[in-house]
């Protein structure tokens, strides 16, 4: 591929991303208006998993401030390749404790904290890196009491204890809660109700932790429901970047 053709391809991709971003921004703005909320109350986090660092750089050029990944082996090199940008990196996937040190090197927020061992690992890693990492408790509405969900997350009855552990941990900051619309259980196919329950949990959590205002919910298919339920962060991937290539 010649330099000229590469440049043309890059401009075409940038135009595609700009158009997709505009459509997503319009969706968020309409949802905020319908809910009587200000657009500034909702942060768009673009999930860039499976897409190259070149796309991440284009997003930064287009004014995106927050991007997310769900696998450290993909996130770490991308964050390094984009270290000269002002992007804020979020980690949103199930996180193994042995990856905590790597994630602590680039992530400003981890949305998917769901067990005490991970709190300890992230705290040790953050202290070692001399950084503060914002954490959200991932809530699983498909989990029975005392268990975890199919895609990670603690059952609602475990949120308080986990939040207390985060709040007391060196190098960590309790930012709030996160969920993924459940695929099984009583709330399967009912994202609006799941997000409303997350908001209730958030309200209760703020009694003891008033600064934990983050409510991370909603993706490409259900961001409107999340905004209506009070989400402060929506995690949108395919609606911005397009259909994902298959994982290898």
From the structure above, extract its key features:
248 residues, alpha/beta, eight-stranded parallel beta sheet, 8 strands, disordered N terminus
Would you write up a description of this structure?
It is a single chain. With 248 residues, the protein is an alpha/beta fold. The chain contains nine helices and eight strands. The chain has helices spanning 3-35, 53-61, 72-81, 100-103, 116-129, 159-168, 191-208, 223-228, 238-241, and strands spanning 43-47, 66-69, 88-91, 107-113, 133-139, 172-179, 214-216, 233-236.
Q: What is the fold's blueprint, element by element?
A:
Blueprint lengths: L2 H33 L7 E5 L5 H9 L4 E4 L2 H10 L6 E4 L8 H4 L3 E7 L2 H14 L3 E7 L19 H10 L3 E8 L11 H18 L5 E3 L6 H6 L4 E4 L1 H4 L7
Parallel strand pairs: 1-2, 1-8, 2-3, 3-4, 4-5, 5-6, 6-7
Pfam families: Ala_racemase_N
Keywords: Pyridoxal phosphate
Protein name: Pyridoxal phosphate homeostasis protein
| Straight-line N-to-C gap | 24 Å
Spans of at least 5 consecutive residues whose pLDDT stays below 50 are 1-5
- Total beta strands: 8
Major sheet strand order: 7-6-5-4-3-2-1-8
Largest sheet: 8 strands, parallel
Domain Alanine racemase N-terminal: 20-245
Modified residues (N6-(pyridoxal phosphate)lysine): 49
Keywords: Pyridoxal phosphate
Organism: Streptomyces tubbatahanensis
In short:
This protein is an alpha/beta fold. It has helices spanning 3-35, 53-61, 72-81, 100-103, 116-129, 159-168, 191-208, 223-228, 238-241; strands at residues 43-47, 66-69, 88-91, 107-113, 133-139, 172-179, 214-216, 233-236.
């Amino acid at each position: 591929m010649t330099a000229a053709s590469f440049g043309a391809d890059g401009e075409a991709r940038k135009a595609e991303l700009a158009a997709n971003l505009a459509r997503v921004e319009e969706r968020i703005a309409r949802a905020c208006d319908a809910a009587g909320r200000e657009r500034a109350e909702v942060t768009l986090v673009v999930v860039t998993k499976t897409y190259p660092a070149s796309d991440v750089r284009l997003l930064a050029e287009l004014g995106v401030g927050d991007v997310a990944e769900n696998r450290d082996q993909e996130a770490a090199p991308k964050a390094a390749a984009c270290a000269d940008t002002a992007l804020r990196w979020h980690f949103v996937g199930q996180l193994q404790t042995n990856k905590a040190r790597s994630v602590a090197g680039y992530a400003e927020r981890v949305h998917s904290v769901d067990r005490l061992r991970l709190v300890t690992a992230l705290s040790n890693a953050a202290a070692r890196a001399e950084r503060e990492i914002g954490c959200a408790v991932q809530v699983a509405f498909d989990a029975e009491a005392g268990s975890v969900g199919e895609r990670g997350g603690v059952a609602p009855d475990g949120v308080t204890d986990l939040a207390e552990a985060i709040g007391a941990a060196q190098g960590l900051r309790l930012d709030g809660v996160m969920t993924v619309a459940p695929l099984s259980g009583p709330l399967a196919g009912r994202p609006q109700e799941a997000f409303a329950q997350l908001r209730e949990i958030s309200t209760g959590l703020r009694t003891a932790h008033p600064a934990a205002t983050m409510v991370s919910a909603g993706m490409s298919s259900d961001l409107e429901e999340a905004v209506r339920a009070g989400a402060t962060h929506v995690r949108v991937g395919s609606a911005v970047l397009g259909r994902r290539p298959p994982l290898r």
